[in-house]
Each structure stands twice: as C-alpha cells, then as structure tokens.
Amino acid sequence: MARGFVYLTAVVDVASRRVLAHKVAITLEACHAREVIEQAFARWGTPEIVNTDQGSQFTASEFTEVVLGKGCRLSMDGRGAWRDNVFVERLWRSVKYERVYLKAYDSVSAARADIADYMGWYNAGRSHSSLDEFTPDEHYFATLPAQAMAA
After folding, report:
1. Parallel, antiparallel or unpaired: strands 19-25 and 73-76
2. 7-142 CATH, one of 3.30.420.10, 3.40.1620.10, 3.90.1150.10, 3.90.780.10
C-alpha cells in the first residue's frame, strides 16, 4: 500500500493450486485465519489434513480448535521448512509480482477489491505449467469425485 500494510490469508488446495478462500485484513489475528478456514470448509468441504506455517494466527486455539473440531489433522511446517508450504509461498510471489507491486493501493478497500479480482483471475484464467497448462479451476473441478445424480 502507499501507506501501511495489509495481510493476505488464503486456503489453497495443494493438488490444483486453487484458492478456496481468502481474506485481506489489516492485522494478523487468529480471527481472520479462523474466518477463512471456516469459509473454505463451508463451501468446499473438509479435507483430511490442513497444513499451515507456525504463525501465531495458526497456532492460536481459536484457529486450531476449528480445524481439529472438524476432524482434520493439523500439520505445521517446521522452522525453515519452506518446502512444506511451497505452494502457498508460490502463490504469495505471484500475487505480489503480478499485482501488488504494480500498484500502490490508496486504501484497504482498494487492496481488498483488487486482490479479490486477482484471485478470481488466478483461479479461472491463469494457466499453470505444473497443471499441464490447465487453470486451477479446470484442474480442481476435473478431479472432484463424481457427484451422484439427484433422482
């Protein structure tokens, strides 16, 4: 931002690189991480495992109780274990270099709107070489288990 900082929290499906939920906030509090993971669970279901780094927002009981309460296993990266979180780190790089560094947001609301626009494009319009040039949306929806047809 032109002045100050905003923080991005996101839930990413590792297999497809799809951003399932995200939030831009002005603090790194656990309530934001909780809100984002709850949105992802409500919209996309509950995974077997949730992997995070060891930031205080992810180690707080407010966050861990939501994850564990859904029956998920919780995995936290070890110190300096960048490979454990490489897909999210790659997303951060893409967001910063393809959008944030190109703009100086005048307000938090401008940052939120523009980053939300980017996330929509990232999921639906940005192909990935690691996904055989499919977009995260294409890969995610192609690999979902077949849904039973309603009678």
Report:
1. unpaired
2. 3.30.420.10
